[in-house]
Automatic annotation (TrEMBL):
Keywords in alphabetical order: DNA-binding, Phosphoprotein, Transcription, Transcription regulation, Two-component regulatory system
Domain Response regulatory residue range list: 2-116
Modified residues (4-aspartylphosphate): D51
Organism: Desulfosporosinus fructosivorans
A molecular-function term among this protein's GO annotations: phosphorelay response regulator activity
GO biological process, one term: regulation of DNA-templated transcription
Ranges where the OmpR/PhoB-type domain occurs: 125-221
GO annotations of cellular component type: cytosol; protein-DNA complex
Residue ranges the UniProt entry marks as DNA-binding: 125-221
Protein name: Stage 0 sporulation protein A homolog
């Protein structure tokens, strides 16, 4: 899962990004509203954590512009303002959740998991389940029934992206941006290599990663009757 963290408080952002990455989230950072909005408009993020008080462009204005442009990525709005009117203002602008500073990292992680419960994907604690396939991103381990397979971090991030978006075509560019990052110099051929690794390593016959020629890949379930 790839997150965008937009906040100008570098003393907060550094440790928070470290904790998020320790929990196997991919994290990109922006320190002002204009940069944050430009990065958010790429559409490569699964969730955005957006501070309200930002240089150059205030967080609520960024939020309104994103929603007006059709960017529907879940957004958690951070703020030191705790009045009812401020919360209403943020939620009416399009925020999916609202977190008041100071906050515990445990609460932020819980709210991120809550917003990730979408598209028919079952999330229990830190585990993700779809088509009977269960992924534990923290352990980089995938299982089906009593059988389990250890993955590398990149393999786990790649599979997590598929499992959070079952039956949806994900382009190679999207896979590259979300797993390796916007600033990565990794080539598209690396995506093909890691797809090969996943297919070779995970032998469970409950799913398939189908190639959509000329576009990308799609995770689909296989019904038991078809096994």
């Amino acid at each position: 899962m790839r997150l965008l963290l937009v906040d100008d408080e570098k003393r907060l952002v550094g440790p928070l990004a470290y904790i998020l990455r320790k929990n196997n989230y991919g994290v990109d950072l922006a320190y002002n509203g204009e940069t944050g909005q430009a990065m958010a408009e790429t559409g490569v993020y699964d969730l955005i954590v957006l501070d309200r008080m930002l240089p150059y462009k205030e967080g609520v204005e960024v939020l309104k512009d994103l929603r007006n442009k059709g960017i529907m990525t879940p957004i958690i709005l951070l703020t030191a303002k705790d009045s009812v009117e401020d919360r209403i203002d943020g939620l009416d602008a399009g925020a999916d959740d609202y977190l008041i500073k100071p906050f515990s990292t445990g609460e932020l992680l819980a709210r991120i998991r809550a917003l990730a419960r979408r598209k028919g994907v079952q999330i229990t604690g830190d585990r993700i389940e779809v088509f009977g396939l269960v992924l534990d991103p923290l352990l980089c381990e995938v299982s089906y029934g009593t059988d389990s397979v250890k993955l590398t971090l990149k393999e786990s991030l790649l599979l997590e992206l598929f499992m959070r978006n079952p039956n949806q075509v994900i382009t190679k560019d999207q896979l590259l941006d979300r797993v390796w990052g916007l600033d990565s110099d990794v080539e598209l051929s690396n995506v093909e290599v890691y797809i090969y690794f996943l297919r070779k390593k995970i032998k469970f016959k409950c799913f398939s990663i189908e190639t959509i020629r000329g576009v990308g890949y799609c995770l689909k379930g296989i019904k038991k009757s078809a096994l």
